[in-house]
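Shift notes (night). Ran Putative dentin sialophosphoprotein while the centrifuge was going.
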Amino acid sequence: MINRLIIRCDNYSHGCIEGVKLEYYDVHEKQCDYLPLKCMNTGCEVTVLRKDMLAHEKECHFRLVVCRKGCGFPVAADQEQNHSCVAVLKSNMEGMEAMFNKKYKSLSESFSKLQQKVESLQTKLHLHQSSAASRDSANDDRSSYSTGAATPVPDSYGEDEHNSQRTPDSFESP
Ligand SMILES: [Zn+2]
Ligand SMILES: [Zn+2]
Ligand SMILES: [Zn+2]
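Came back to this:
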């Protein structure tokens, strides 16, 4: 029952005289033509009702247009005739130069970090190689010994297996 209530829109004072059913209020609020909206263009402080926004955007002094005088950069509409293309180009160049310098700085920083990593890896590798070389010479003595000792083991193990098959009998018989 309560949802059938018809209430007055918040934007009544701006001209929305439509009565809104409570159940549709959320929907209406989102699309009410009389909702005041601030212009999105940078520098523009104008607030207009939603229904007038399209008209305002077409004539807003701060809307961006592509300069037809020469620089081809987007400029605020009321600046198109007065601005200096050279100044726009210069500031764009400076912006690009600053961006380039920043990129270059971070690139050279990561490059020197990489270089440090490579150097420390080289040092580690060198240490590893020299210690491995001393270990290899020690291994040579042991490996000749261990292979000589390891070979007989499978044979004697096979013999043990044959023996163990006989042992249960010898355990049970007494
Ligand atoms: Zn409304
Ligand atoms: Zn505007
Ligand atoms: Zn220009």
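The mean pLDDT is 83. Helices lie at 25-31, 50-59, 85-150, 152-172.
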